[in-house]
Amino acid sequence: MTEPVLDLPSPAQLELKQQLRLRRFLLASRFSALYLVVLLVFYTQNKADGETVGEACAIVALWIFVFFLLFRLGINLRFADPSLTAWQLIAAVFTMLYVVYHAPETRIVFSAFFFIALMFGMLRHSGTQLAMLGGICLFAFAVVAWLRYAKNDDGEVLRTDMLEFSVMAVTFPWLLFIGGRVKRLQRGLSEASVKLEDIEERARHDDLTGVYNRRALMVALEESKQRADLSGEPLSICVIDIDFFKRYNDEFDHLTGDRVLRTFAQAVQDGLRGTDIFGRYGGEEFVQILPNTTLAGAIADAERLRERVSAIELPIARSIGRLTVSIGVAQYGPGETIVQTFSRADEALYRAKRGGRNRVESSRGKDA
Questions:
Q1: What's the CATH architecture for 214-363?
Q2: Assign residue 276 a region: left if phi > 0, alpha if psi is -120 to 50, beta otherwise?
Q3: What radius of gyration, in Å, describes the C-alpha atoms of the chain?
Q4: More confident residue, 327 or 269
Protein backbone atom coordinates (compact mmCIF):
# COMPACT_ATOMS: atom_id res chain seq x y z
CA MET A 1 0.00 0.00 0.00
CA THR A 2 1.45 3.36 -1.02
CA GLU A 3 2.03 5.82 1.82
CA PRO A 4 0.35 9.21 1.40
CA VAL A 5 2.61 12.06 0.39
CA LEU A 6 2.60 14.78 3.02
CA ASP A 7 2.31 18.35 1.79
CA LEU A 8 5.17 19.74 3.88
CA PRO A 9 5.98 23.46 3.89
CA SER A 10 9.16 24.48 2.10
CA PRO A 11 12.19 25.85 4.02
CA ALA A 12 11.39 29.30 2.61
CA GLN A 13 7.84 29.11 3.99
CA LEU A 14 9.13 28.01 7.39
CA GLU A 15 11.63 30.87 7.43
CA LEU A 16 8.89 33.35 6.49
CA LYS A 17 6.66 32.10 9.32
CA GLN A 18 9.55 32.44 11.76
CA GLN A 19 10.16 36.00 10.60
CA LEU A 20 6.48 36.82 11.13
CA ARG A 21 6.62 35.39 14.66
CA LEU A 22 9.68 37.52 15.44
CA ARG A 23 7.96 40.57 13.98
CA ARG A 24 4.89 40.02 16.19
CA PHE A 25 7.14 39.64 19.22
CA LEU A 26 8.92 42.92 18.44
CA LEU A 27 5.52 44.60 18.13
CA ALA A 28 4.52 43.26 21.56
CA SER A 29 7.85 44.50 22.93
CA ARG A 30 6.81 48.04 22.02
CA PHE A 31 3.93 47.74 24.46
CA SER A 32 6.43 46.63 27.12
CA ALA A 33 8.42 49.78 26.41
CA LEU A 34 5.21 51.81 26.63
CA TYR A 35 4.49 50.25 30.02
CA LEU A 36 7.90 51.40 31.25
CA VAL A 37 7.20 54.92 29.98
CA VAL A 38 3.97 54.96 32.00
CA LEU A 39 5.88 53.79 35.06
CA LEU A 40 8.28 56.68 34.61
CA VAL A 41 5.32 59.04 34.62
CA PHE A 42 4.17 57.50 37.91
CA TYR A 43 7.71 57.94 39.23
CA THR A 44 7.66 61.66 38.40
CA GLN A 45 4.40 61.94 40.37
CA ASN A 46 5.87 60.08 43.37
CA LYS A 47 3.50 57.13 42.81
CA ALA A 48 6.36 54.66 42.25
CA ASP A 49 9.85 54.64 43.72
CA GLY A 50 12.95 54.77 41.57
CA GLU A 51 14.22 51.39 42.70
CA THR A 52 11.01 49.62 41.60
CA VAL A 53 11.01 51.40 38.23
CA GLY A 54 14.65 50.49 37.69
CA GLU A 55 14.01 46.84 38.55
CA ALA A 56 11.01 46.82 36.21
CA CYS A 57 13.20 48.14 33.37
CA ALA A 58 15.78 45.43 34.06
CA ILE A 59 13.15 42.65 34.16
CA VAL A 60 11.48 43.81 30.93
CA ALA A 61 14.87 44.06 29.18
CA LEU A 62 15.75 40.56 30.37
CA TRP A 63 12.45 39.10 29.10
CA ILE A 64 12.85 40.79 25.73
CA PHE A 65 16.40 39.45 25.42
CA VAL A 66 15.35 35.90 26.41
CA PHE A 67 12.41 35.74 24.00
CA PHE A 68 14.47 37.32 21.21
CA LEU A 69 17.09 34.58 21.62
CA LEU A 70 14.40 31.89 21.61
CA PHE A 71 13.12 33.15 18.27
CA ARG A 72 16.51 33.80 16.68
CA LEU A 73 17.89 30.39 17.70
CA GLY A 74 14.70 28.58 16.65
CA ILE A 75 14.15 27.14 20.13
CA ASN A 76 10.54 28.39 20.00
CA LEU A 77 9.83 25.74 17.33
CA ARG A 78 10.05 23.04 20.01
CA PHE A 79 6.93 24.42 21.73
CA ALA A 80 3.33 23.53 20.85
CA ASP A 81 2.74 27.21 20.04
CA PRO A 82 5.89 28.47 18.29
CA SER A 83 4.68 32.06 18.72
CA LEU A 84 5.11 31.65 22.52
CA THR A 85 2.12 33.95 22.99
CA ALA A 86 1.02 32.41 26.30
CA TRP A 87 4.54 32.56 27.73
CA GLN A 88 4.90 36.19 26.67
CA LEU A 89 1.55 37.00 28.30
CA ILE A 90 2.50 35.31 31.56
CA ALA A 91 5.92 37.00 31.61
CA ALA A 92 4.31 40.41 31.06
CA VAL A 93 1.63 39.90 33.71
CA PHE A 94 3.97 38.59 36.39
CA THR A 95 6.39 41.47 35.72
CA MET A 96 3.54 43.93 36.26
CA LEU A 97 2.46 42.08 39.40
CA TYR A 98 5.97 42.44 40.77
CA VAL A 99 5.65 46.18 40.24
CA VAL A 100 2.16 46.24 41.79
CA TYR A 101 3.48 44.46 44.89
CA HIS A 102 6.15 47.11 45.43
CA ALA A 103 4.17 50.10 44.12
CA PRO A 104 0.42 49.58 44.77
CA GLU A 105 -0.51 52.88 43.08
CA THR A 106 0.38 51.30 39.71
CA ARG A 107 -2.47 48.80 39.92
CA ILE A 108 -4.49 50.92 37.48
CA VAL A 109 -1.66 50.51 34.97
CA PHE A 110 -1.80 46.76 35.54
CA SER A 111 -5.52 46.69 34.70
CA ALA A 112 -5.06 48.50 31.39
CA PHE A 113 -2.03 46.53 30.21
CA PHE A 114 -3.49 43.25 31.47
CA PHE A 115 -6.37 43.60 29.01
CA ILE A 116 -3.98 44.68 26.23
CA ALA A 117 -1.96 41.51 26.85
CA LEU A 118 -5.15 39.45 26.70
CA MET A 119 -6.02 41.02 23.35
CA PHE A 120 -2.67 39.83 21.98
CA GLY A 121 -3.36 36.37 23.36
CA MET A 122 -6.78 36.41 21.76
CA LEU A 123 -5.16 36.29 18.31
CA ARG A 124 -3.41 32.98 18.96
CA HIS A 125 -5.48 31.08 21.53
CA SER A 126 -8.99 29.70 21.83
CA GLY A 127 -11.51 31.13 24.27
CA THR A 128 -10.94 28.26 26.70
CA GLN A 129 -7.17 28.68 26.65
CA LEU A 130 -7.49 32.44 27.11
CA ALA A 131 -9.93 31.94 30.00
CA MET A 132 -7.39 29.68 31.73
CA LEU A 133 -4.57 32.18 31.21
CA GLY A 134 -6.69 35.08 32.39
CA GLY A 135 -7.89 33.09 35.41
CA ILE A 136 -4.29 32.30 36.39
CA CYS A 137 -3.36 35.98 36.10
CA LEU A 138 -6.35 37.15 38.17
CA PHE A 139 -5.59 34.56 40.82
CA ALA A 140 -1.97 35.75 40.91
CA PHE A 141 -3.20 39.35 41.35
CA ALA A 142 -5.32 38.25 44.33
CA VAL A 143 -2.33 36.42 45.84
CA VAL A 144 -0.12 39.52 45.45
CA ALA A 145 -2.78 41.66 47.14
CA TRP A 146 -3.03 39.20 50.05
CA LEU A 147 0.76 38.96 50.44
CA ARG A 148 1.05 42.73 50.57
CA TYR A 149 -1.72 42.89 53.19
CA ALA A 150 -0.06 40.13 55.22
CA LYS A 151 3.19 42.11 55.13
CA ASN A 152 1.84 45.60 55.85
CA ASP A 153 -1.55 44.91 57.47
CA ASP A 154 -3.02 47.80 55.50
CA GLY A 155 -6.75 47.21 55.21
CA GLU A 156 -7.34 50.24 53.01
CA VAL A 157 -4.88 49.02 50.40
CA LEU A 158 -6.41 45.54 50.53
CA ARG A 159 -9.92 46.94 49.97
CA THR A 160 -8.67 48.95 46.99
CA ASP A 161 -6.94 45.87 45.60
CA MET A 162 -10.07 43.78 46.00
CA LEU A 163 -12.15 46.46 44.32
CA GLU A 164 -9.67 46.46 41.43
CA PHE A 165 -9.81 42.66 41.36
CA SER A 166 -13.63 42.68 41.28
CA VAL A 167 -13.71 45.11 38.36
CA MET A 168 -11.27 42.96 36.36
CA ALA A 169 -13.09 39.73 37.27
CA VAL A 170 -16.42 41.18 36.08
CA THR A 171 -14.95 42.71 32.93
CA PHE A 172 -12.87 39.68 31.94
CA PRO A 173 -15.79 37.41 30.83
CA TRP A 174 -17.14 40.19 28.65
CA LEU A 175 -13.74 40.57 27.02
CA LEU A 176 -13.79 36.84 26.28
CA PHE A 177 -17.32 37.10 24.88
CA ILE A 178 -16.50 40.04 22.62
CA GLY A 179 -13.21 38.43 21.62
CA GLY A 180 -15.04 35.25 20.66
CA ARG A 181 -17.44 37.22 18.49
CA VAL A 182 -14.55 39.07 16.86
CA LYS A 183 -12.72 35.81 16.14
CA ARG A 184 -15.85 34.27 14.61
CA LEU A 185 -16.27 37.38 12.49
CA GLN A 186 -12.62 37.22 11.50
CA ARG A 187 -12.94 33.53 10.65
CA GLY A 188 -16.04 34.25 8.57
CA LEU A 189 -14.26 37.04 6.71
CA SER A 190 -11.26 34.77 6.09
CA GLU A 191 -13.50 32.02 4.73
CA ALA A 192 -15.32 34.53 2.54
CA SER A 193 -11.98 35.87 1.30
CA VAL A 194 -10.82 32.35 0.43
CA LYS A 195 -14.07 31.68 -1.42
CA LEU A 196 -13.75 34.95 -3.34
CA GLU A 197 -10.16 34.14 -4.26
CA ASP A 198 -11.29 30.70 -5.42
CA ILE A 199 -14.07 32.24 -7.50
CA GLU A 200 -11.65 34.77 -9.00
CA GLU A 201 -9.12 32.03 -9.75
CA ARG A 202 -11.75 29.86 -11.42
CA ALA A 203 -12.95 32.87 -13.40
CA ARG A 204 -9.46 33.19 -14.87
CA HIS A 205 -9.34 29.60 -16.12
CA ASP A 206 -10.99 27.81 -19.01
CA ASP A 207 -13.54 25.32 -17.69
CA LEU A 208 -12.67 22.64 -20.23
CA THR A 209 -8.85 22.63 -20.29
CA GLY A 210 -7.99 24.26 -16.96
CA VAL A 211 -5.56 26.74 -18.57
CA TYR A 212 -6.00 30.51 -18.59
CA ASN A 213 -9.03 31.78 -20.50
CA ARG A 214 -9.19 34.62 -23.02
CA ARG A 215 -9.84 37.36 -20.46
CA ALA A 216 -6.93 36.26 -18.25
CA LEU A 217 -4.67 36.02 -21.31
CA MET A 218 -5.40 39.60 -22.33
CA VAL A 219 -4.63 40.81 -18.81
CA ALA A 220 -1.40 38.77 -18.77
CA LEU A 221 -0.41 40.13 -22.19
CA GLU A 222 -0.84 43.72 -21.03
CA GLU A 223 1.06 43.09 -17.78
CA SER A 224 3.87 41.37 -19.70
CA LYS A 225 4.08 44.36 -22.06
CA GLN A 226 4.36 46.76 -19.12
CA ARG A 227 7.14 44.70 -17.55
CA ALA A 228 8.97 44.56 -20.89
CA ASP A 229 8.69 48.35 -21.23
CA LEU A 230 10.12 48.87 -17.73
CA SER A 231 12.89 46.29 -17.90
CA GLY A 232 13.81 46.53 -21.57
CA GLU A 233 13.74 42.73 -21.81
CA PRO A 234 12.32 41.08 -24.97
CA LEU A 235 8.82 39.66 -25.06
CA SER A 236 7.39 37.24 -27.60
CA ILE A 237 4.06 35.53 -28.09
CA CYS A 238 2.92 32.42 -29.94
CA VAL A 239 -0.58 31.96 -31.33
CA ILE A 240 -1.25 28.24 -31.70
CA ASP A 241 -4.02 26.56 -33.68
CA ILE A 242 -4.79 22.81 -33.74
CA ASP A 243 -4.83 21.68 -37.36
CA PHE A 244 -8.09 20.23 -38.74
CA PHE A 245 -9.60 20.12 -35.27
CA LYS A 246 -13.13 20.10 -36.69
CA ARG A 247 -12.64 16.52 -37.91
CA TYR A 248 -12.55 15.22 -34.33
CA ASN A 249 -16.01 16.66 -33.70
CA ASP A 250 -17.34 15.57 -37.10
CA GLU A 251 -15.95 12.03 -37.29
CA PHE A 252 -16.38 11.23 -33.60
CA ASP A 253 -18.33 13.60 -31.33
CA HIS A 254 -17.87 16.76 -29.33
CA LEU A 255 -16.84 14.81 -26.22
CA THR A 256 -13.95 13.36 -28.20
CA GLY A 257 -13.02 16.85 -29.33
CA ASP A 258 -13.05 17.97 -25.69
CA ARG A 259 -10.70 15.13 -24.72
CA VAL A 260 -8.32 16.11 -27.51
CA LEU A 261 -8.29 19.72 -26.29
CA ARG A 262 -7.58 18.66 -22.71
CA THR A 263 -4.80 16.28 -23.79
CA PHE A 264 -3.22 18.96 -25.97
CA ALA A 265 -3.40 21.62 -23.24
CA GLN A 266 -1.81 19.29 -20.69
CA ALA A 267 0.99 18.33 -23.07
CA VAL A 268 1.82 21.98 -23.73
CA GLN A 269 1.75 22.87 -20.03
CA ASP A 270 4.16 20.04 -19.24
CA GLY A 271 6.77 21.64 -21.50
CA LEU A 272 6.42 25.27 -20.33
CA ARG A 273 9.12 27.22 -18.54
CA GLY A 274 8.30 28.62 -15.14
CA THR A 275 7.92 32.14 -16.55
CA ASP A 276 5.72 31.19 -19.55
CA ILE A 277 1.99 31.82 -19.59
CA PHE A 278 -0.35 29.62 -21.59
CA GLY A 279 -4.07 29.79 -22.20
CA ARG A 280 -6.97 29.09 -24.49
CA TYR A 281 -7.93 32.08 -26.61
CA GLY A 282 -11.03 30.42 -28.01
CA GLY A 283 -12.11 27.22 -29.77
CA GLU A 284 -8.97 25.34 -30.81
CA GLU A 285 -6.76 28.46 -30.67
CA PHE A 286 -4.27 28.92 -27.82
CA VAL A 287 -1.73 31.57 -26.85
CA GLN A 288 1.69 31.22 -25.22
CA ILE A 289 3.37 34.29 -23.69
CA LEU A 290 7.17 34.07 -23.47
CA PRO A 291 8.72 36.80 -21.26
CA ASN A 292 12.41 37.63 -21.71
CA THR A 293 12.46 35.74 -25.03
CA THR A 294 13.62 37.04 -28.39
CA LEU A 295 11.92 36.18 -31.66
CA ALA A 296 14.60 33.58 -32.45
CA GLY A 297 14.16 31.97 -29.05
CA ALA A 298 10.38 31.94 -29.42
CA ILE A 299 10.63 30.33 -32.88
CA ALA A 300 12.89 27.61 -31.47
CA ASP A 301 10.47 27.06 -28.58
CA ALA A 302 7.53 26.90 -31.01
CA GLU A 303 9.34 24.27 -33.11
CA ARG A 304 9.93 22.16 -30.01
CA LEU A 305 6.27 22.52 -29.08
CA ARG A 306 5.19 21.49 -32.59
CA GLU A 307 7.33 18.35 -32.42
CA ARG A 308 6.08 17.55 -28.92
CA VAL A 309 2.47 17.84 -30.05
CA SER A 310 3.12 15.49 -33.00
CA ALA A 311 4.18 12.81 -30.52
CA ILE A 312 0.97 13.02 -28.46
CA GLU A 313 -1.01 9.80 -28.18
CA LEU A 314 -4.64 10.83 -28.45
CA PRO A 315 -7.19 9.32 -26.02
CA ILE A 316 -9.43 7.97 -28.79
CA ALA A 317 -10.02 4.40 -29.95
CA ARG A 318 -9.36 5.05 -33.65
CA SER A 319 -6.67 7.38 -34.90
CA ILE A 320 -7.27 9.75 -37.82
CA GLY A 321 -3.67 10.84 -38.09
CA ARG A 322 -1.20 12.67 -35.92
CA LEU A 323 -2.22 15.74 -33.95
CA THR A 324 -0.44 18.75 -35.44
CA VAL A 325 -0.45 22.49 -34.85
CA SER A 326 0.27 25.65 -36.78
CA ILE A 327 2.01 28.43 -34.85
CA GLY A 328 2.44 32.15 -35.47
CA VAL A 329 5.22 33.92 -33.56
CA ALA A 330 5.86 37.64 -33.01
CA GLN A 331 8.13 39.69 -30.78
CA TYR A 332 6.77 42.78 -29.08
CA GLY A 333 8.22 45.93 -30.56
CA PRO A 334 8.65 49.09 -28.44
CA GLY A 335 6.06 51.68 -29.30
CA GLU A 336 3.39 49.27 -30.49
CA THR A 337 0.40 48.07 -28.54
CA ILE A 338 0.17 44.49 -27.38
CA VAL A 339 -2.89 44.12 -29.63
CA GLN A 340 -0.70 45.01 -32.62
CA THR A 341 1.86 42.41 -31.56
CA PHE A 342 -0.91 39.84 -31.18
CA SER A 343 -2.27 40.73 -34.65
CA ARG A 344 1.15 40.16 -36.20
CA ALA A 345 1.39 36.74 -34.50
CA ASP A 346 -2.13 35.94 -35.71
CA GLU A 347 -1.21 36.92 -39.27
CA ALA A 348 1.85 34.67 -39.05
CA LEU A 349 -0.42 31.85 -37.89
CA TYR A 350 -2.61 32.20 -40.97
CA ARG A 351 0.48 32.14 -43.19
CA ALA A 352 1.43 28.86 -41.52
CA LYS A 353 -2.02 27.45 -42.20
CA ARG A 354 -1.99 28.63 -45.82
CA GLY A 355 1.49 27.18 -46.20
CA GLY A 356 0.32 23.66 -45.48
CA ARG A 357 -0.13 23.63 -41.69
CA ASN A 358 2.07 21.82 -39.13
CA ARG A 359 4.61 24.62 -39.35
CA VAL A 360 5.85 27.76 -37.60
CA GLU A 361 5.79 31.22 -39.17
CA SER A 362 6.99 34.48 -37.63
CA SER A 363 6.50 38.21 -37.91
CA ARG A 364 9.53 40.43 -37.36
CA GLY A 365 7.76 43.76 -37.07
CA LYS A 366 8.88 47.17 -38.28
CA ASP A 367 11.92 47.53 -36.01
CA ALA A 368 13.28 44.00 -36.45
A1: 2-Layer Sandwich (3.30)
A2: beta
A3: 34
A4: 327
